[in-house]
Amino acid sequence: MRYAVLGTGIVGRTIATKLASLGHEVVIGTRDPQATLARTEPDGMGNPPFATWHADHSAVALRTFAEAAAFGETVVVTTAGAAALDALTAADEANLAGKVLIDISNPLDFSKGMPPSLNPVNTDSLGEQIQRAFPDTKVVKTLNTMNCFVMVEPSRVAGAHNVFVSGEDVGAKKQVTELLVSFGWPEPGVIDLGGIETARGTEMLLPVWLRLMGALGHADFNFHIQGAR
Amino acid sequence: MRYAVLGTGIVGRTIATKLASLGHEVVIGTRDPQATLARTEPDGMGNPPFATWHADHSAVALRTFAEAAAFGETVVVTTAGAAALDALTAADEANLAGKVLIDISNPLDFSKGMPPSLNPVNTDSLGEQIQRAFPDTKVVKTLNTMNCFVMVEPSRVAGAHNVFVSGEDVGAKKQVTELLVSFGWPEPGVIDLGGIETARGTEMLLPVWLRLMGALGHADFNFHIQGAR
After folding, report:
1. Which GO terms of the molecular function aspect are on file (chains A, B) (predicted)?
2. Digit-coded pLDDT (tens) for A104-160
3. How distant is the Cα of B151 from the closest Cα of chain A, in angstroms?
4. Residue B153 lies inside a defined structural domain of this protein
5. Which chain A residues are Cβ-neighbours of B123 within 8 angstroms?
6. Is the N or C terminus of chain A more exposed, i.e. has fewer CB atoms within 10 Å?
């Protein structure tokens, strides 16, 4: 399948690498490809600049958000939460209509200090905001409750653990579940929470995730719902 | 030890029953004991009135919040979240000073429809509000992330799963951890998240917990942090 991955950060690179390794055609979307490739500094988390990664993954083209979205049969949003709606607006509604949109982003708000809070939160979610803004697109919120390396290699965490899907379209959730299985997720580990409103629940896992990372001292952990089956 | 359990609902009754079964002296606190005992209707969840439960558990005395708090060496808050600060105010700061206060309540807000949202949320938590209101009391937030039957009988959920503790006082968390072990929690299953600020994380687990209950159709499940050890 042809995938557009919006976002050039570590999550986007990790997802794009996995998709390409599975034989999919992958294009990464960014606001300004020239500017993205021209950056020579590590990002705020110490990850190398995009160009360094891209030199080793030249089969993955870098295009504008709109070009990438036009190319992709399925679109994956991996930007920072605060940038997601702008990226999708730049991608253009017409390029998203009728497609499955996998939303991995979290609405982390760094403006009130560390650890980040969430915005929106509680009575709304970023997943719902995206679905409302693009009503002709089939939004599936998933994978946002773990480190990106666990997303594409669940066996990094020993034992059974879970990934959640939230969305209005049953067929879209089925397609995304098949993708998750191809990533290495056992199908019983995929928990369908219901409609996109349930993204409030998974986005609100981030605060305890961040504090667990602090308490455990690493990010190779995940939520397992014991008693789910 | 002498325990005061504030709140006469299903959580308070379940905790009081467990504490009494372990040989502790237990008093339950309520606003107006006569009024509580006079109720003959089931509560909103269909649980029998308090008097029905009390007839089978007469060793547990029912007293005012203040009388109960004065009696208890350790105090447990099991009221609805919206009632917790009022109950503790009625319990009287002097009766709480220097004591360990176990906060099991969740700030569920039913005013915006179902499922409930949270208030406070995100940049504050009920656990922090209680600690700020009673600075001479050692607040430990715990057990608020599961059904009350799982709290006191963790083996209802097969396999390993976790309970979190949040609080400023290391000795208080140690005491509460020993209590949890006496409830049946294996000590490695108790995850110390850090200070009371981390109660934001565990209170914000409620939204996904509520949606999981809907998706699974039962409440005998719990969070297991896979990769924590």
Report:
1. oxidoreductase activity
2. 999 999 998 899 999 999 999 999 999 999 999 999 999 999 999 999 999 999 999
3. 14
4. yes
5. 112, 117
6. C
